[in-house]
Each structure stands twice: as C-alpha cells, then as structure tokens.
Design a protein that fits this description.
Number of domains: 2
Strand content: 15-25%
CATH superfamily of the largest domain: Zn peptidases
Radius of gyration: 24 Å
Number of strands: 19
CATH class of the largest domain: Alpha Beta
Distance between the termini: 12 Å
CATH topology of the largest domain: Aminopeptidase
Shape: elongated
Protein name: M20/M25/M40 family metallo-hydrolase
Number of helices: 11
Organism: Qipengyuania mesophila
Oligomer: single chain
Keywords: Hydrolase, Metal-binding, Signal
Pfam families: M20_dimer, Peptidase_M20
Order of helices and strands: HHHHEEEEEHEHHEEEEHEEEEHEHEEEEH
Length: 435
C-alpha cells in the first residue's frame, strides 16, 4: 500500500519558504536529540568496536544483541530472523504497534560492514565531532540515528501512536543466496508499510544536504567466449577464426559504443583470456595460461550493471545479449546476467516525501534539500521495497570514505538527521493511510 501524499506538496514546499512553526512536542524532540548527543556517540562507539563483516556471523549477531535492549526500552518487540538458509547470520527486526489506521512506517538500516575480521582497519578514534572506524558511517551511524530519533519521539510522546517496523539486515553489503530467502522478510515488511525510510549515509552535494528519492539497481554479468585453438600463424584464416580474446574485445568494445544512456553504467570488473581461462569458484577472480604462439581458446569477464528503472535494466540486457550473439568467425560467446538489487525508481510519492521533509527543514531553519542525482548513489536495501511503497533514503549521517580504511563520520550530522527523522515520523504518524 502507498500512502497518498499529494504530489503537489513537494512543489509547494520548494516554491515557498513559509511553513508552520514546530509544535511543542516537536520542540521537545529537537531538545531531546541534542541532550542525548553524547549517549548516541557512546552507543556508536560500542557497536563500531564489534566487528560485523557480512561473513562474520557471530559479530553480526553480537551487534544485534547490543541493540535489542535499546529497542525494547522504547517499547518495541524484537525478533532475530535467522538466515543460515541463505548463508548469512540473520536480521534484527523491531516492531512498535501504534494507533490503528495511522501511517505504517518501515525504517531500514543494516548491521553488517564490508570489514571482515582479518581487516587491519579496526577501532574507534574520536577527534572532537569527527570519528573514524570500520562501518562507522555505513551503516552503524545510520542505526544510531534511528534509535536517537525513536528515543526523542518517546520522550516527546509522539511514539505512542506510531506504527513502525525497524528492519536491520545482517547482509546488506553482501546479500545472502538465494536472494528470495535473504530479502523475504524485508519485502513482506515493505508490502505492509505505507512509507519506507532508509538510513544509509546522507548525501552531500556542493556542501549541502540532499534527499535521496531514487537509487540505481545493482546487477552483474558474466561473459564467456570460446574459439578454435591452434597455431597462431593461422589466426584470422578461414576455418580457423579470430580466437576467444578478439571475440571478447569485440563484445566489450561494442558495449562501450552502443549501450550508453543516461543513468546507466556497465563496468568490466576483471577479465582473463588464454588456453584455457576460467573464473574462480568465488566469482571474484580468474586464472589463465597461454603462449604467444597459440590461439586462445577461452576468455572470461565479469562486470556490473546499474540502471534507474527495471525497464532500463531489461532493455539494456536485451541489447547486451544481441551484441554477444554476433560472433566473429570461428568463435562462440554467451552471457549470463543476474539482477541482484532492484532500482528505487523515482516516483511522485517519493518526491512528496522529500517535500514533507523540506517543510520540516523550513521549520528547523535548515536549507532546502534538493534531490540527489541517482547516478551517484549505489544500490541499497530500500530498493527491494520500492515497488510497494513510497520511500526516502539517505537519512543516515554524513561522512566520508565508506568501504575504505579511514571511514569517518561527522558526529554532529547524527543530530540534525535524527531531528529531521523524528519530526517526519511524528507528523506521518498522524496521517491515516486511508487519506
């Protein structure tokens, strides 16, 4: 179900800075978030010091166990959803039942990071209002923003009527397989909800906060070419052909020339060619052998595919298959394309949610948040629920260096993001899903 927020609201907010003043409960929210700043930083430090790489199942669960008391103290019921069937640790869901008929809200974050136990990047180092640590921005800071916002709502009395499900996945950085199992519970929550809010990092553009109303998909492709082998002196000759590497080069160059369009990218991650060449069992490496005087029998390549809509995904995939089907003499080729993370396509409902947030920005004395270009954001879990519900992403804190040693967070950004989120949820809680 989609909550019916007038699409014209967004345009109205952008057109006029005039807005109602903060209510007394909303003023209490602002003060509460500010007062709990050091408490939030302490929680962030505690969970950042727990290694929770996607494949460190014990660590992911330990982060969840550290968060359970935080949610239960706010009146949420919690559930650990085991994901051993998908090869991952599991997900933490927290649920709050509010007034019947009020807006049903799904808050999305994740417990895992890209830093596995063997990573040399560890610890938590704070210097003033900046801190460095693995996953501190992506997405442990986002999880803290969720809790900070909910705690402020509780203190202000606006949480009571709110119907909320918090979904913290344990494998966002490397989703389990089969994906139908790994994302089943999240999708069911999206089908229940009226609104979804994603708490991955805030996007900054030209020094200003922005809103994320669309994100591109994330898929992958595997290309294999094969050819007759033989002495290199016969290459190009009739009955011999061009070899597997030339066929690979033909295809990849045709991708480069023929596929470009707005919001579409298709990277080649790695490749190998020789006699033979093959992709490793991990799907992240390739091996090959060969000689300069032998026509290569095999070439392999893997890459990704990112698009703004599912239609763009499917149309591009059809073009790629057509290019692959045009073989050089003496060669064969095949491509396998897998769509993993779907796109969060732009919608009027998503724009209207950003309009509501900008009304709050006006009340808080903050600048208008423009939509962030979707081509600059990667895929995220909110995309799995995008077909069912209006959504707003990028509601986590700001920082830099995600997925790399030195990942950092602007700690003060947690304050304004929690204030925005708490007021937004408080206002949404008053909106009937039947309106």
């Amino acid at each position: 179900m989609r909550i019916l927020i007038p699409a014209l609201l967004c345009a109205a907010v952008f057109a006029s800075p005039a807005a109602a003043q903060l209510s007394a409960p909303e003023q209490a929210i602002v003060a509460s978030v500010e007062a709990d700043y050091e408490t939030d930083v302490a929680l962030l430090e505690r969970i950042t010091l727990i290694n929770s790489g996607s494949h460190n199942h014990a660590g992911v669960k330990a982060v969840a166990e550290a968060l359970v008391p935080e949610f239960e103290a706010l009146g949420f019921t919690t559930e650990w959803i085991d994901q051993s069937a998908a090869g991952r640790a599991g997900h933490l869901f927290a649920r709050h039942e509010g007034a019947p008929g009020s807006t049903k809200m799904l808050l999305i974050g994740h417990l895992d990071t890209v830093f596995e136990p063997d990573s040399p990047f560890t610890g938590f180092v704070r210097e003033g209002d900046t801190a460095v640590g693995p996953g501190i921005l992506d997405d442990k800071g986002g999880v803290v923003v969720i809790l900070s916002a909910l705690r402020a709502m509780k203190a202000a009395g606006t949480l009571d009527d709110a119907n909320i499900v918090v979904a913290l996945t344990g494998d966002e950085e490397d989703a389990g397989d089969p994906l139908e199992v790994a994302r089943r519970d999240l999708i069911e929550a999206g089908q229940w909800a009226d609104v979804a809010i994603g708490f991955e990092a805030l996007s900054i553009l030209d020094g200003k906060d922005t809103g994320v109303v669309a994100r591109r998909s994330s898929g992958s492709w595997t290309l294999t070419t094969s050819a007759r082998s033989g002495h290199s002196s016969g290459i190009f000759a009739e009955g011999v052909g061009y070899g597997a590497i030339y066929e690979m080069a033909r295809i990849l160059d045709a991708f480069r020339r023929e596929l470009p369009e707005e919001n579409l990218t298709y990277n080649v991650g790695f490749m190998a060619g020789g006699t033979p060449a093959e992709i490793g069992e991990d799907g992240l490496s390739a091996t090959t052998t060969g000689k300069t005087n032998i026509i290569p029998s095999t070439a392999v390549a893997r890459g990704d595919l990112r698009a703004l809509t599912q239609e763009q995904n499917e149309r591009t995939a059809a073009k790629m298959r057509a290019i692959v089907a045009e073989h050089l003499p003496g060669t064969e080729a095949e491509i396998a394309i897998e769509f993993r993370y779907p796109p969060m396509a732009p919608t009027a409902g998503n724009d209207a949610l950003l309009g509501r947030l900008n009304a709050i920005n006006a009340d808080l004395g903050l600048e208008v948040m423009a939509p962030y270009p979707p081509s600059r954001r990667g895929a995220a879990d909110i995309s799995f629920v995008a077909p069912y519900v209006d959504g707003l992403a990028g509601m986590g804190p700001s920082g830099s260096g995600s997925h790399a040693a030195g990942e950092s967070i602007d700690l003060r950004s947690m304050v304004r993001q929690a204030q925005r989120a708490a007021i937004l949820m408080s206002r949404l809680a008053k909106v009937s899903s039947s309106e």
